[in-house]
Amino acid sequence: MLLPSLLPAIISLLCLQYLPKVSALKGDSGCNTFICVNATLGENNRITYQLTGLYPPIGWLALGWGGKMEGTPMVVVWPNDDGTFSLSHRYGRPNHVEPVFIPTPLRVARAIPPGASSWHPEGSIRMAFDMRANLTALADDPVEHLIWAYGMTNPGSKLLNTELLAHYQAGFLNIDFSKEAVPMPPPFDGQQTTSGNGGNSVPPPPNAGNSATVHSTVGPTTAFGGHEKLIVAHGVLLSFGFLVLLPAGSLIARWSRTFTVKWFKAHSIINMSIALPIIVIGWLFGPLAVASSEGSHFLSTHQICGLFLPPLYFLQIWLGRYIHRRKAEGLVPKDVPHPPSNLLHAGFGLLIIGFAFFQVRSGLELWDKATGRDPLDDWCHDLWLAWTVVLPVAYIAGLSLLPRQFYQERMQVMPGGSFYVALDRADSPLLSEAGIYGESHAQFTNSRATMDPVTFRASEAQNQ
């Protein structure tokens, strides 16, 4: 009686043994401003990598298995004009040299059609490949450490050993294969970033939750890493140097030169002694920030302009020292208070400050692209805009003192009411009797031009 009752259960268990086994796939995914990566470890012990380029123009994308470019095997993929994409095995070399082509890699990647995704921003490109998993390494550590790179220039060829131009941005990411694979994460709700393709908007992917740790893909409350700290130091120091200290020196020269003789000392200390080390240190942080992410130098407008701005500032310092030295040595004629070098110095200084305004604005717009964080708060752009109004208004208002300045220079009056006598001129009032006594009325002329002539009798002068 017992056997017939157990027979259906035994048959059911036997049938289950012949059903295909279903197990959860393992994998991880994550995004930043430039690229999304989805990696899935299948039952056939092969890993499928799907790359989505987000930042047009998409020249090429790369993944490498290592912690840095040097000595790392990598796979580079790029789209072709016919709708296909090419896959090339490369090996990273030091000093940012183009990775060399590997004809026979240890682990061969093969191009496959990208999987379906509910999230496919307009202007983005998806490419996929799979390769044999390194099960030994994953058994020791289920987290796969990768580097990524994004290039803006398409090779324009299907040849696998074709030349690759330098990447525009690069970083690293960690894929955790202990997690259950999930589809590519959906975009944020209510947030958009510009795709750069005809003004279309592309919703950014999430950067929290179960997504992979992609370098520069962090939440707004995540602590800054070394790369981001370098960018912040670079921006803060140069913004303070070029948009606070240099304008302060210019305004001091414009406003106080008719009131005190100490204006030049303050102008020199601020524009050279204080601003020079701040600007030099801040500028050096720029190349260090690019190198920390293994990015390429002098590709963007901000980087190219940043190459020329400090030399212009150094030239301005030299010009100011040259003008001061000639004046101290008495090489500037007193009847030429504004030689061409002085006018060039003033105009050149205003040009540098205007150039710096443009440079700071372009740097603000690069923050999210360089770090993968959210764009800077609106107050940063509002402060920049307000400063572009305040400084010109303050300088233009100071031009109202030009008549006073020209009068003092014409009458050779020192600012602040002090007596001014040109001792190095042959017609100095101290050396010319006619400059002291009026020829017709025996008037004694006070050297301070702001006072009325004082008269007394010649007989009184003789008694004295």
From TrEMBL:
Signal sequence interval, chain numbering: 1-24
> Can you give the residue ranges of the DOMON domain?
32-151
Q: Where in the cell is it found?
A: Membrane
List the top taxonomic levels of the source. Eukaryota, Fungi, Dikarya, Basidiomycota, Agaricomycotina
* Source organism (scientific name): Agaricus bisporus var. burnettii
Region annotated Disordered, chain positions:
184-216
One Pfam family assigned to this protein is CDH-cyt
Quote the Gene3D superfamilies the UniProt record gives: 1.20.120.1770, Cellobiose dehydrogenase, cytochrome domain (2.60.40.1210)
Q: Where are the transmembrane segments?
A: 230-248, 269-289, 301-323, 343-364, 384-402
- Protein name as annotated: DOMON domain-containing protein
